[in-house]
């Protein structure tokens, strides 16, 4: 795992979460998507912070990636529950990012 | 209008938007709150950026405050439509912040 | 320690870090302030995220506060080294915030 | 200009600014880089917000892109002054992003 690969995983996950957030808000049954909306937002935000920390060589990059991995994992678990394509795609991006961030955090 | 007053208005508005966002997601009729959820998030984020820019003496503080005023105004207009107390309170905080940011932007 | 007190400690710390960042960039001897500039930025950003997470009832608020405590502690240690008033004041705000976030994270 | 192209220009610019910020802080003559450090930070932050707004279909995406274009332009002008490769590369990324955001803002 290189720094570059982890940054790319975070960029992909941030995009998937932002798109899933938007798509969830447009779903007919929004009520069912409430937790997904919430975790999508949290996950996109921590990914953005992880990207910034890696790109700017933050002394806290490893710790931020560790937290990012935890939130990505949780967001993936939430998205996984829903059949919408945007949720399934988001879950995959979250799991990939969680794995990348975990190995970066070591 | 001093810098300090505008920062405080942004802090108050950010708080109101974050709380309204959370409360909207918990409302029985979430469907009705979708635009409010969206604008609350946008408004809290631009207020956070405006606070940072003013506190750190950003050369772009005036331009950021100008945009913040526009988003606060729009968020206030959206919140205003809903009778929930958190929406009404948020609308007031948004309008106060919009006014503060407008005069700061000049 | 209530949620409100921890949010306030983060708001105070964010402000101190943003002001210290700006003041450090204006110091005659900037070279000496490089690490302080860096940690001030990191600390202000994680405080902003912690505030958002607590105000919006994030399911990750405790984990974000835990990381915030670590970064505040490190920023306090860096600021403490410098005699400038803005650094000393920032160190104090960082330590207070670290303590508040640590007890919130439990 | 598609949405996708503008998002990519912002991602590239954010990366260039974050790397330039880090590299500037490591320069022997930091004193000379102070304004560059400052605008790099501002520019990376507004690019991050523009990315989020476009990816999540924000009703304020156009306005945020307009501001992003202004800050990118100013950051490009600052970076352009310095001969370091990271500054020259950042200036180019800033100008490309400014152009992309301007056409998006229309």
UniProtKB/TrEMBL annotation, chains A, B, C, D:
Domain of life according to the entry: Bacteria
Pfam families: Csp
InterPro entries: Csp_YhjQ (IPR005560), YHJQ-like (IPR044543)
Upper classification of the organism: Bacteria, Bacillati, Bacillota, Bacilli, Bacillales
Protein name: Ferredoxin
Species this protein is from: Rummeliibacillus stabekisii
